[in-house]
Amino acid sequence: MIILGLNAFHADSSAAIVRNGTLVAAAEEERFRRIKHWAGFPSLAIAYCLREAGLTLADVDHVAVNQDSRANIFRKIRYVLTNAATMGLVFERVRNRSERAKIPQLLEKSFPNQIFRGQFHNVEHHLAHLSSAFHVCPFDQAVVVSVDGFGDFSSAAWGTGQGTDINIEGRVFFPHSLGIFYQALTQYLGFPHYGDEYKVMGLAPYGSPSKHEEMRRIVKLRPGGKFALDLAYFTHHRERIAYQWADGIPEFTDLFSPALEQLLGPRRQPSDQLEDRHRDIARSVQAMYEEAFFHLINELQQKSGLTDIALSGGCAMNSVANGKIRRLTNFRCVYVQAAAGDAGGAIGAACTVWHQKGGARSFVMDHAYWGPAFERQELLALIEAERARISQENCVIADITNEDELCRRVAAAIAEGKVVGWFQGRMEWGPRALGNRSILCDPRRADMKALLNAKIKRRESFRPFAPSVLEEQVSSWFEEDDAVPFMMQVFQIRQEQRQKIPAVTHVDGSGRLQTVSRHTNPLYHKLIKTFGAMTAVPMVLNTSFNENEPVVCQPKEALDCFLRTNMDMLVLGDTIIER
Questions:
Q1: How are beta strands 119-122 and 466-470 bridged, if at all?
Q2: CA 133 centroid distance within chain
Q3: pLDDT at res. 93
Q4: Cα 66 to Cα 344: distance, rounded to the nearest angstrom
Q5: What is d(CA 334, CA 319) in angstroms, rounded to the nearest whole number?
Q6: How many H helices and E strands in the chain?
């Protein structure tokens, strides 16, 4: 059975192919369009997935989309009837969703010579999220939680998963949303772009939670683990806010009302300097999110008695909160899929249909390498075609087909303080570079963050960089010991180790680690192990291979990024290009 899963017309549009219950390929459209968080119909991602699987659209049995306009229909009707002022707003959103109904026509237009004869399925947004986490996790039974902005009129859903079944036991409905709370406060703090919430997470440790009581006026905790917003501080329930886009960058108008500025003071403009009050508000926002999040999952743990949890939805990207779960609850194991946000709904929609059709569970997502790869001959042909440009930069080219020697040369360059672009194998699925489309540096250098920002990234100084650490060495360096293959949890670095790795130690002593397994990425594991043998530090600083753009997908994008920045070394497969 071949199932094509889609996240369409949401941010991070994506596609995935599941064959007989096993994931074959998955990618976000942004990697091909070169526009961050691209929202629309993911035609290029679909084309890649079909190509990778060796299929045409005619071979596909089912197309599953992570949205169902019929879901929660009675809730929608009741809301409209009891909120007459919002009737036009709701009907406007219904009209916007008509784009979803055009997917058959868009497939036909995008693949004119490939006739699809299978079935279409609409999978409720949060069910797709829950499936994207539980049906690919290593747990046979677990608490499952999805929290985000909105999808199909709800912002959160939770319950338990067992075997192939997911039992949804509770929801939070529109207009209440932890995702909207965090996004609105992100806008207020002067970070206006879609996905900027991670900047608030990075800023939060520099402040104190002095505005926590004000946050408790904005978010109210309710019995049963639920939460609600004081809607006086928001606009999304009474103004036309886009949640779906036909093509391009997802953009939002302000989600907060003037009442928020009356409560917290004037908003910060993006060009304004950061002040202590902004840092304190960021810390208070994170503290309020965590209070509501743990209010929910503690309730679920106590009710179920289960010790495994699988998280999904955009809020599952809050790696700071995720990293505290083992400390603050009785959960012992945490699973967060590599693309926890809307992109992951493509996999969840496909998995839901597979199990609804009677398919068994046999697949575990223990790595994120589901995107395009390139043969050695393609890489060599690119280098030959671009040799003149490479020579203009006074670069030296070396082919090193011995893997041990390649790792030794690259590890030595990292240990010398060089910035290395590392392009290997299949591209990562999800927002994190995890050792195949990465920029690598020495975590021991206190000045490395400033050097990296000056050479390439140009990020805000308060944002931390992450360590990739050998999975067998985690307990020696971090206070927690768990598999974190997708960089979705922040752990505290052991006190005695922090001075050894200042480039990846955040101001609060934490690190957003990626655990690297010999089983899932043997070359990256060997490189880090080689670096560890040289330096006694079994980790490297790892950041995404890009420069204010989506993570590079194709080798030419990697070479272009290398040539236009001050990167010291580029490794394309087994070829080293060095300034």
A1: unpaired
A2: 13
A3: 54
A4: 9
A5: 11
A6: 22, 24
Say what angle helices 43-53 and 103-110 make with each other, to 10 degrees: 60
pLDDT digits (tens, 9 = 90+) for 297-311: 999 999 999 999 999
At 97-152, the pLDDT tens digits run 555 558 999 999 999 989 999 999 999 999 999 999 999 999 999 999 999 999 99
Q: Does residue 20 register a pLDDT over 90?
A: yes
CA dist 477 and 537 (Å) reads 9
pLDDT band at residue 497, thresholds of 50, 70 and 90? very high
- The encoded tokens of residue 543 equal 């950041």
Residue 361: DSSP 8-state: P
* Start-to-end CA span in the chain (Å): 49
Closest CA to 340 of 133, 166, 113: 133
Residues 319, 101 contacting (CB under 8 angstroms): no
CA atoms in the 13 A half-sphere facing the CB of 85:
5
Selection from 357, 183, 243 nearest residue 7 by Cα: 243
Distance of CA 184 to the CA centre of its chain: 19
Give the whole-angstrom CA distance, residue 196 versus residue 255: 14
Contact 413, 539 (CB under 8 A): no
Tokens of 256: 């907060």
pTM greater than 0.90: yes
d(CA 558, CA 420): 11
Judge whether 204 and 283 are in contact, CB under 8 Å: yes
Pairing label, strands 466-470, 514-516: parallel
Q: Is the pLDDT of residue 434 over 90?
A: yes
Residue among 156, 153, 187, 157 nearest 169 (CA): 157
CA distances from 498 to 125, 502, 538 (A): 41, 6, 14
Token pair for 125: 């947004």
Rounded to 10°, the helix 403-415/522-535 angle is: 50
Give me the chain's average pLDDT, please: 95
**Span 386-430, pLDDT tens digits:** 999 999 999 999 999 999 999 999 999 999 999 999 999 999 999
Q: How far apart are CA 270 and CA 191, in angstroms?
A: 6
Which candidate, 151, 120, 132, 130, places its Cα nearest to that of 4?
120
Select from 572, 568, 578 the least CA-distant residue to 451.
Answer: 568
* Residue (of 233, 229, 234, 220) closest to 295 by Cα position: 220
Length of the chain: 579
Nearest C-alpha neighbor of 219 from the set 155, 301, 314: 155
High-pLDDT (> 70) share of the chain, % = 96
Banded pLDDT at 165 (limits 50, 70, 90): very high
Separation in Å, CA 535 to CA 358, 506, 512: 52, 21, 21
What residues pair up with 219 in beta bridges, in sequence order?
A: 229
pLDDT value at 72 more than 90: no
Pair 423, 570: CB distance under 8 Å? yes
Instruction: State the pLDDT at residue 74.
Output: 81
The yes-or-no verdict on residue 87 having pLDDT over 60 is: no
Exposure of 98 by Cβ count < 10 A (0-12 exposed, 13-18 middle, 19+ buried)? exposed
DSSP line for 184-205? HHHHHTT--STTTHHHHHHHGG
The residue-averaged pLDDT of 145-160 equals 96
